[in-house]
Amino acid sequence: MGRPDLNRRQLLATAGGLAVAGSFGFAALGTGADALASSADTRVRYWNLFSGGDGSNMIAMLDAFRQANPGIDVKDSTLQWGNPFYTKLAMAAAGNRAPDLGVMHLGRVTGFSPGRLLDPWDVELLAEHGVRERDFNPSLWQRGVIDGKLYALPLDIHVQLCFYRKDVLKRAGLLGDDGRIVPVTSADEWFDVLKEAKKATRKGLQTIGLWVNDQNFQWWFFVAFYTQLGGTWFNADNTEVTFDTDRATQVLEFLRRHIAEGYADPGLGSVGAEQFINGAPFAWEGNWSVPVYAGAKLDYGAIPLPPVFGEQATHAESHAFVLPHRSGRGGAADDGAHRLAAYIVTHARQWAAGGHIPAHTPTLSTAAYKKLDPQSEYVSAMDHQATEPKVWFAGSTGILAQRVGPIVVSSTLGSARPDVVAGRMKGELAKLLAMKNPMDGRTAAQGGTAA
Asked: What average pLDDT score do residues 367-377 get?
């Protein structure tokens, strides 16, 4: 996800990313300072929130762009991940001091006052640089469209995955002839798998790590399984809450069952990765953990979250390129911003080193991408995305997760009944629907989010 703290995971991720960078012929490391010393006529200022392994991969891609486009200086700046990044970007756009190009999580775009703090993309100019709508998943592309204009150009999707240890599952008889986990199509089948896996797990290790104490992960898991059940959030006009408490209760009971039946340990909620590395059979984590496990040289696989309620769906968010508002946008710098974003999107094999699924679908059919393991195993998630509703308070680190995530955790940990929690979630959704976006003073119903 590009979090700012460079911890053990990110050190491993950096190593994994650099190894793949070399295999694709990208420069291993570089610096935006080179742009300042260049004599090129055009300069593009670019803000992003990528650090750790993602930061290394992005630098490699920028260096490749510089080599291919010597007439364009790129001055890249990495800012603190999360709300501090969005606050600074909003202030810069409001004060006409914004960079030429920026990165946002796609779910946050609706709340960023498109048309005031963000400028729309020139789709004809993008097409000149090789980016066309037909080369993207239709649903993903439309998430960046507000009031008929493209405000966010998707770079990737990053998804929640079910990581599994092949060595443990083989002992448990849970690997198919293809060396992958046996198919799971219902909640009962999933818990049967956990039961058998637990028998083959070393003493002292939990069966599955699923961040039971973390409001973000629990919210992301809830979104995935609620979507599998066909659950909805609001009506088309964002004037009414359509949240189904019966379906929500099913999901909450499912999540709670992992602890109640002894497969997940609440005391190990923040060390799931370490448990997986040490031999735990399962971990539910984001795809950004791929470099961590690859760096540990595990015999493992990864699939989208299992379709325990029948329909395929796993939580997905996206990094996307945006044009922060600048008065009089245009000219060489604007063309350079379009060229840079298009280059990175269409040369995203390197980005896959961090586990992300490139948004540019032709990349997914290349021989180089198909050789990536386990990335090629979960690429189908592109067609089964479970996303948050398209409202101003949604998106990564958004108000929706902050308000509702802790409520989900209370059910998972057993401090509140699932049916009671479902009612509380619906109440919070109603409050959020009535709130005004601090960016523009409008409610979701007034926000103009028609695609």
From this structure: 95
Largest CA distance in the chain: 65
Euclidean distance between CA atoms 12 and 288, whole angstroms? 11
pLDDT at 39: 60
**Three-state SS at 30:** coil
Q: Which alpha helices (DSSP H) does 119-265 contain, by range?
A: 123-128, 138-143, 166-171, 187-199, 215-228, 245-260
Backbone angles phi, psi at 427, to 5 degrees: -65, -40
For the record, the structure tokens of 5 come out as 């703290």
Q: Are 152 and 103 in contact (CB under 8 A)?
A: no
pLDDT of residue 191: 98
Residue given tokens 């958004």 in the structure block: 398
Rounded-to-integer distance, Cα 238 and Cα 185, Å: 33
Determine how many CB atoms are found less than 10 A away from the CB of residue 438. Answer: 11
- Strands 42-48, 385-386: pairing is unpaired
Instruction: Return the percentage of the chain with pLDDT > 70, whole number.
Output: 90
Distance CA 80, CA 83 (A): 8
148 Rama class: left (phi>0) / alpha (psi -120 to 50) / beta = left
Return the amino acid letter for 416. A
Residue 164: strand pairing partners? 282, 301
> Residue 324: CA atoms inside 13 Å, Cβ hemisphere, count?
25
Which of 35-44, 140-149, 171-180, 272-281 is the least confident region? Answer: 35-44
State the Cα–Cα distance between residues 61 and 23, nearest whole angstrom.
Answer: 13
User: Could you tell me whether strands 118-119 and 101-105 are parallel, antiparallel, or unpaired per DSSP bridges?
Assistant: unpaired
Residue with tokens 């769906």: 313
pLDDT in the model for residue 52:
86
